[in-house]
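Hello K.,

You asked for the raw outputs rather than the summary table, so here they are, unedited. I folded two proteins back to back in the same session to keep the settings identical. This is the first:
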Amino acid sequence: MVEDEPDVLLLLENRVRGAGHDVQSASDGERGLELALSESPDLIILDWMMPKLDGIEVLERLRADEVGGRIKVLMLTARSQQNDVDRAFAAGANDYIVKPFSSRELVERIAILLEAAA
C-alpha cells in the first residue's frame, strides 16, 4: 500500500493484515512504485495525493510496465469528484474508494479484486 498519512497507513496495515493478507507499505509515490515493480504484489492500495509522485503518476507508470501492468490497483483517496474517479479509471485503476472509508468495505473490495486476479 502507498499512503503518505502515517495514521491512515497504520490503520490500513492493521486492517489488511487482520484480514489475513501480507502487507508492504511506502509513504510516497516514488518508493511505492519502486516497491511495486520489485515485489510485484497481487494488489496495491494507492493514495492519490502524495509527495514525489502522485497516485495517478504511479498508476500510469505501473500500467506502462510489463510486470506492473498486471498488478490490481485500488485507489483510496479523498478526491471524490466524478472527474477524479473517471481519471483514475482511465489511468488503469481497478477500483476506487473515497476517504473516509469503511474498513469492512475495503476488505470486501480487496477480496473481490484478489479473487478476480486468481
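The second followed immediately with the same parameters:
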Amino acid sequence: MDLLSVGRISGTHHLKGAVKITSNVDGIEVLEGNKVMVELSSGEIKILTVKKVAPMVGKKWTMEFEELTNKTDAASIQNAVIKARRDLLGIEEDEFLANDVLGMKAFTEEGESIGEVVDVYETAAHDIYVIEDDEYETMIPDVEVFIKKIDFDKNEMVVSLIDGMREKKKD
C-alpha cells in the first residue's frame, strides 16, 4: 500500500477533539469516512478514521477523527504526520507530488552527498527543491537538466549542479 503524507497536525481546534492541519495536498476532503495513518513524532503509529474535513485559510484545514472525542485526545497527536493511500486522493502509482521528495537524500552525479531535501518552493515555472547539509544550502529547479534521477525505493535523488546552486549557510 503506497502512502502519501497529506499534512502535519499543527494544533487542537475546539474542545471536541478536532485538530488543525497544514497540508500542501489538494482535495483532502475525500478522506472523510476513510482511515488514515497518523505517525507521531515518537514514531508510534495510530490508525484513525476521518470523520470530517473543513478548510480554514490558505493551506490550513480542520480534521475530526471518530476516535478522538476531546481536546486531550487531540493534543496527544500534536505535530504528527497524517498519511493516506495515494489512490484515495486520485494520485496514480507512477505520479508523485512535491511532498514525496521531502526527506530524500541528494547526491551529485559523481556520488557526493549534498544533503537532504528539506523544503519545496512552488514557482510559476516549476518547483524548487531546497537541499541542506550542515554547511550548505542548495536550491535546485525541478527540471530534467538538473534532476537526473529520483529513486523512491532508496529515498534518494541524483542531481546535476552548476556554479551558484550551493551556498554556504550563514551563521
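DSSP finds one helix and 13 strands in the chain.

Happy to rerun anything if the numbers look odd on your end.

Regards,
P.
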